[in-house]
């Protein structure tokens, strides 16, 4: 943990871990201390205090919601924001930390001593003590407000699904896509799917046509679905489309995936939409008549088919689709041997009224 804290300092992100720890400890405070502590945490991390270390949520709706909660802060006041910050720490910061020299570095005794009284390490010690006492039954799990279940440190807030799971779960993908529509950033998912399929086009004429279609749709200033990407990168794509290569969109695609994985999917996992999905209560809305949604499901199904082919060949889908830039030859689709159907004579059986009724129910269920 000490090395992770040092790494966060090197990328100017210590406040994310510090906030998460403070918000976690806050949940276990006595009732009469909640209001004062909640407002203090808000001032440090969200109100722009000169002495504070603000967190950039990149989600105005969450900031506005948190501001409203400060009028009468409850024990779950920071729960949603915590989920977003946890996603950032887990999917982006820690992933980068594991690839950094700091991950395997050995700290000197002087470095360890210097961090002994660090505020983040002190908070960590408090958090670990609470966790230990909770597991031993010495500290009771705090009660959440009405309509909220009791908090559990191992609850699904910290066991969120990874975005890669959408390729194994159509319902999860539909729920995530619906969230992206609600937040007006759905073009990023569609762009990633379309460009992944584009990478695998072999015919030069088809590649030229498809690349121009993607550029017109996502990369120009007047594109109807311009993606969240650096302007310089989009300009480079537009200028290179005259001689398109399979890797034309790769840099933008990887940047878009980072946004989907590290920002928007963690936000989705703490949204009301995800809670409805998790309770199997979600009703997917139909496409707006004023906005075209494209062929997202068709593209998604093609990617899923690609994943199955890689899985069946024992190859790593995430590594090949998300990480690697070079394309390896795809395994051939598996062929199933033809099934010989032997006709079986059907005997005529007289049915009772109850069996007829049961058959009707079965038929309706199958429909």
Tally of strands: 0
Average pLDDT rating: 77
- What is the name of the CATH superfamily of the largest domain? Regulator of G-protein Signalling 4, domain 2
- The number of domains is 2
Q: Which structural class best describes the helix and strand composition? A: mainly alpha
The total of helices stands at 16
CATH topology of the largest domain: Regulator of G-protein Signalling 4, domain 2
- List SSEs in N-to-C order: HHHHHHHHHHHHHHHH
Rounded to the nearest angstrom, the distance between the terminal CA atoms is 55 Å
- Helix fraction by DSSP (H/I, runs of at least 4): 55-70%
For this structure, what is the CATH class of the largest domain?
Answer: Mainly Alpha
CATH architectural grouping of the largest domain: Orthogonal Bundle
Describe the fold and architecture.
The protein is mainly α and 367 residues long. It has 2 domains: 2-136, Regulator of G-protein Signalling 4, domain 2 (Orthogonal Bundle), CATH 1.10.167; 163-302, Regulator of G-protein Signalling 4, domain 2 (Orthogonal Bundle). Helices cover 56% and strands 0% of the residues. It has helices at residues 2-10, 14-26, 34-45, 60-69, 79-98, 109-115, 119-136, 170-182, 187-198, 204-218, 231-240, 250-269, 272-278, 296-312, 317-323, 353-366. Helix 2 (14-26) packs antiparallel against helix 5 (79-98), helix 5 (79-98) packs antiparallel against helix 12 (250-269) and helix 9 packs antiparallel against helix 12 (250-269). The chain starts with a helix and ends with a helix. Mean pLDDT is 77; it is low at 146-157, 285-293 and 346-367.
């Amino acid at each position: 943990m000490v090395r992770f804290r040092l790494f966060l300092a090197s990328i100017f992100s210590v406040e994310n871990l510090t906030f998460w720890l403070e918000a976690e400890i806050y949940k276990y405070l006595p009732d009469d201390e909640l209001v004062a502590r909640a407002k203090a945490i808000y001032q440090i991390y969200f109100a722009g205090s000169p002495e504070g270390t603000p967190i950039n949520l990149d989600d105005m709706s969450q900031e506005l919601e948190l501001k409203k909660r400060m009028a009468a802060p409850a024990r779950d006041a920071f729960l949603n924001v915590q989920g977003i910050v946890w996603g950032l720490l887990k999917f982006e910061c820690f992933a980068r930390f594991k690839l950094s020299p700091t991950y395997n570095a050995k700290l000197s005794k002087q470095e360890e001593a210097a961090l002994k009284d660090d505020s983040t390490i002190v908070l960590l010690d408090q958090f670990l003590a609470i966790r230990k006492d909770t597991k031993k039954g010495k500290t009771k799990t705090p009660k959440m407000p009405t309509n909220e279940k009791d908090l559990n440190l191992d609850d699904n807030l910290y066991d969120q699904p990874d975005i890669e799971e959408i390729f194994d779960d159509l319902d999860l993908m539909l729920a995530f896509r619906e969230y992206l529509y609600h937040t007006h950033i759905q073009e990023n998912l569609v762009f990633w799917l379309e460009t992944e399929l584009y990478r695998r086009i072999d015919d030069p004429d088809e590649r030229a046509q498809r690349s121009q279609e993607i550029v017109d749709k996502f990369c120009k200033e007047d594109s109807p679905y311009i993606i969240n990407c650096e302007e310089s990168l989009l300009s480079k794509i537009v200028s290179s489309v005259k001689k398109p290569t399979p890797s034309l969109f790769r840099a933008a695609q990887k940047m878009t995936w980072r946004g989907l994985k590290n920002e928007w999917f963690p936000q989705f996992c703490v949204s009301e939409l995800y809670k409805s999905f998790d309770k199997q209560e979600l009703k997917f809305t139909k496409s707006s008549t004023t906005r075209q949604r494209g062929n997202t499901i068709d593209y998604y199904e093609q990617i899923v088919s690609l994943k199955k082919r890689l899985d069946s060949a024992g190859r790593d889908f995430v590594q090949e689709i998300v990480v690697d830039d070079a394309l390896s030859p795809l395994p051939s689709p598996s062929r199933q041997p033809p099934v010989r159907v032997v006709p079986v004579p059907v005997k005529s059986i007289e049915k009772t009224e109850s069996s007829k009724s049961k058959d009707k129910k079965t038929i309706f269920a199958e429909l």
